[in-house]
Amino acid sequence: MKLILLLAGLCALGSLEAKHWAVVVAGSSGWYNYRHQADACHAYQVLHKHGIPDENIIVMMYDDIANNRQNPTPGMIINKPNGPDVYHGVLKDYTKEDVTPQNFLNVLKGNKAAMNGIGSGKVVESGPDDNVFVYFTDHGAPNIIAFPSSELHAADLQEAITFMHTNNRYKEMVLYIEACESGSMFDRHKLASNINVFATTAANAAESSYAVYYDKKRHTYLGDVYSVKWLEDSDNANFKTETLKEQFTRVQKETNTSHVMEFGDLSMGSLNIGQFQGEGSTNSFAKTYEPSSTADAVPSPMVPMMVLYNSIQNAKTTEEKDMYRLKLQQLQETHSTIHNVVKEIVKNAVYNEHKQKHILSKTATPTYHKCYKTAVTGFRNHCFNFNKYEHALRHVYVFANLCDEGIPTGSIMKSIQKACPVAY
Fold first, then answer.
1. Is 369 a catalytic residue?
2. Which residues, in sequence order, are bridge partners of residue 170?
3. Which pLDDT value is given to residue 18?
4. Which is it for the CA torsion 367, 368, 371, 377, positive or negative?
5. pTM > 0.90
């Protein structure tokens, strides 16, 4: 009997020591990308107000929005029209140039030595009894999610997840990813169903995610459809009864702009969202944060253009209209330049015209990870920085196709350097 009581006590002690860990990442910078940091800040508020202690939440964001000169409400960020400030109190563990794929992976894997002297130095120090929640929001492309000056490839994320599983760094883990073509992060590099990981994405492997809530006062979009749907659901949910599957199903139904996907261990859908987003009973905004219409949603790649269209429509003077028209013309010319550069790269690498057309039109299914990664990095470094020229991400599928056609990596790199003797 004493032994039974002792074992019961030890089990109870173990459950008391179990912790929640969360990593929140906004991978972009710049005012037109306002929505990503707004999504991330809102996510922090949900996690914090539902009881996850700040020492167990890690936030990565560039932090150039709240005090941006274009912000009409300095020091504030909102995630919906007339919504509450979601910036107040937000952690700033890693900002500016510290928001990188490698730092994100080191944080996930608990590599404290690697993060020494960088930002807050916080990492996920989880153990076999702990649950981990990861939320990422930014741009994407086939097998890629973007960061301010680089990108994270699916194979590298999968390697980090495998490392965490092998080293008993979690009991269960959940990932929510907002990005164009975000489904490609898991459907091509299969997320195993037997490692206690459940993931959902804003879109399938071949479509855009959508921005929403255009704000005339701020001249930008305040959120992303998938993100605001799960966040607004969490704002009003009972964390002790609503399950991951129920939240996924609701978000999937209400995100009518793209196909919300689920991957990994689908049996985890029966677990309560509180087991990952915090088990405190207080709702983030006390049921006052009601959803708004998403009728103004636009594909993420169209955001810069739609911001200018809206600015032209709302301009109060002829001079303002002309200024925005000029910016729109310049943006269209930039898109045309990117398209022509990519066509030139393909022509430099492949001489057969039929094969050129095939490479430029085929939907990408990246197979050769090292070749694709090298080519994408070369295109970013030699031609177009993706954070400045987000439209260039819409063309990186071509490099996957070049690699899949068996074009040597060295030949692809020479073609890139020839087409871009000087970076744009």
1. no
2. none
3. 81
4. positive
5. yes
